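User: New here, any thoughts?
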Amino acid sequence: MTIYQTLLGEDFTRLHPKLQKRYALPVDQPFYAKGVMHKIESGAKWLRPFYAMATKTRFLFPESGEDVPFSICNTCRVLPSGELEVLWERTFYFSNKTRYFDARMTVDPVQKIVKDYLGSPALFYSDLHFAVTSEGRLVIRSGVQRFVVSQIECPIPKMLEGRVVVEEGFDNKRNVFTIHVSIHNPLIGRLMMYAGEFTQQSM
């Protein structure tokens, strides 16, 4: 049983069957998919220094675009502690640049949250709360966040947080996974938004 099944418990069975298969993630058996982001929007131009730092750690990036090719690889692995971790590797193929968005996730079964470290090496940490909609889609919302400096983690004031909402589903008619991600700050506005679709591929 991988971290998402552990976290969601019986609710895992309410996910669309394709999402159940996608998030089962047996150890060392990656889920790999390719698709297209119909729209990608970054934030204001004055945030470029922040994006420049973020791109160096395979986190957020300044580019926006439409119909951008995309790939995703999720791999569940066993840490030396025996804990299960899922590595997220997202790649966006802009016409003149390739950008990355990495994350590492583990689960806290007591607090019922996913612990998400964003970037390689990690630049930010966020609690994630998972829920299943009545239609069988997966919705993820961020919680407490921290700025990561090596082994030090500093709490981020709520007004400075990048509030994340992710919705992932499956379109039966078109036989594709659908994804919509929004990262928004209450003071600054949009930090990142992307929406698109993808299909599982052999590696």
